[in-house]
Amino acid sequence: MTKDLRDIKAPIAEELEAFEKHFRDAVRSRVALLDKIMHYIVNRKGKQMRPIFVLLSARMCGEIGPKTYTAASLVELLHTATLVHDDVVDDAYQRRGFFSINALWKNKIAVLVGDYLLSRGLLVALDNGANDILQIMSRAVRDMSEGELLQIEKARRLDITEEVYFDIIRKKTASLIAAACASGAASVTNDTAIIEKFYQLGEKIGLAFQIKDDLFDYGEINVGKPRAIDIQEKKMTLPLIYTLQQVDTAKKRQLIRTVEKYNKDKKKVGELIRTVYDSGGIAYAQKSMETILEDARRQLAELPSSAAGDSMRDLISYVIERDN
Q1: Angle at 324 between CA 166 and CA 119, to 5 degrees
Q2: Residue closest to 206 by CA, chosen among 152, 238, 169
Q3: Does residue 224 lie in a domain region?
Q4: pLDDT (tens digit, 9 = 90+) per residue, 14-41?
Q5: What's the CATH number where 54 sits?
Q6: Where are the beta strands (DSSP E) in the chain?
Q7: Alpha-carbon distance 185 to 196, whole Å?
Q8: What is the pTM of this model?
Q9: Nearest CA to 54 among 46, 41, 66?
Q10: Number of domains making up the chain
Q11: Is residue 67 in some structural domain?
Q12: β-bridge partners, 94
């Protein structure tokens, strides 16, 4: 049975509280409007998965210190900035049951808030002399931007192969979780081989994390976004990509037409989802996710055992079994 996230965080519970203070200090502003928005962001925090990856990775490699908190704050600032900008790009007015920044303060302010968060992340790293951490995170920001643009480019042509799909999610999602794990390790050790191991571990977890998110789009569970939103946005994810490879030419043409022309027609989208289930698309994506995480578990088993390592293993199980 998968452990509760609270139990998973137990080895770093005190450090997570210390991080939260560090993060609040990092986003504080003397501009009243900006400080109000930062207060709203801090108070509607999510699971803080990426800082958890930073802290667990650091604890597995040594003793958590000031540089670790810098790394955790930087990853959370960058992640939050991308979410704020994503909501503007997607014209989204809710995130995880809360109003988005652009819904409350409009797009112009939301874009500026995202820019502010990005700049605070850069300064947090530079002010604390964490240039190596900044380099790791900057690589992730570059990859995330490339992944998003690649997905937009391919959505126009609806010609995504499985290879391209994995390239997209490796860049847009896995890169930041990989950077979180690598920066956690880098905050307590200079061993480049160890840091690279944690990067690879985080990348595998991130790939599985995104596949799980893509599977939610075909399920009934309320995860804070409408069902089939990926189809509406013409995002070709693994279940559908696999299905298109299994059906005959006429059916393939029909499915692509649904995504291209009728992606908001509930009846046609419902038929598409049923075809994805019947053709084994869901089962294939789940199997792919499990295979990736099994690789992550094997890699984790090669590292020295510890309470933090046990929590990392439980966090891997949480990724695959979570319901939101």
Answers
A1: 70
A2: 169
A3: no
A4: 999 899 888 888 888 889 998 898 888 8
A5: 1.10.600.10
A6: 94-95, 98-99
A7: 9
A8: 0.89
A9: 66
A10: 1
A11: yes
A12: 99
